[in-house]
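pasting DNA-binding transcriptional MerR regulator for the record, 240 residues
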Amino acid sequence: MDLARAHGLSAQAVRNYEQAGVIPPARRTPSGYRVYTDDHAGALAAYLGLLPGYGYPAAGEIMRAVLRDDLDAALAVIDAAHVQLRRDRDTVTAVAAALVTTPAAGQLPDRPVSVGVLAHRLGVTAATLRKWERAGILAPARSGTARAYSPDDVRDAELAHLLRRGGYLLGHISVVIEQVRAAGGPGPLAASIAQWRDRLTARGRAMLTGSARLSDYLDQRHAAPPVGDTGGAAACGEDQ
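structre below
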């Protein structure tokens, strides 16, 4: 199939994309062959261009909206993806800033501390610490109603306190703390900040490329011949 070969795909992959609704349905010949036109080629190029930056779910949602002529819905998905990218960039910035002032291991307590001790250390109330716990920022051990904050909990509380002073919301702080925990502490996470930034830059560039491919396809659809005109079918081939 010419359409599949042009993109290094199998004929089955193109049929799967058609079934998923990310390219238009193909016209069938009397003998049952699918006929793919320039419209299908443009849609496939747009979809494949969107994938690296937006991922499969969002790219599929965008293309299905475009094919049902709901451009507002397609642009809403694109807008949401860019908002998420901005949030991810803010998270990296917050993590990098927080790690600069993260207390060293020698500055942390060598045993679990009570909620009162931790609250006094930070200059906050016990109610504030409990609120951070509900937001997923802290996860102290419990013995009945008593909370015991490990050295790692104290470190997380110090980071949270710093970020709150910087104006970050609890939901954002929770994401930052999750990254610290997943990395095994601030040290390993600090080493990966540059790679994290590089991945976000690559995603941003891929989103720009995908948006350009989609814009090309939108221009193509706007200039398409009237419905019923089968021009361009031979250029893209056909298959059952």
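The domain at 2-88+198-239 is CATH 1.10.1660 (Multidrug-efflux Transporter Regulator; Chain: A; Domain 2).
The first strand starts at residue 27 and ends at 28.
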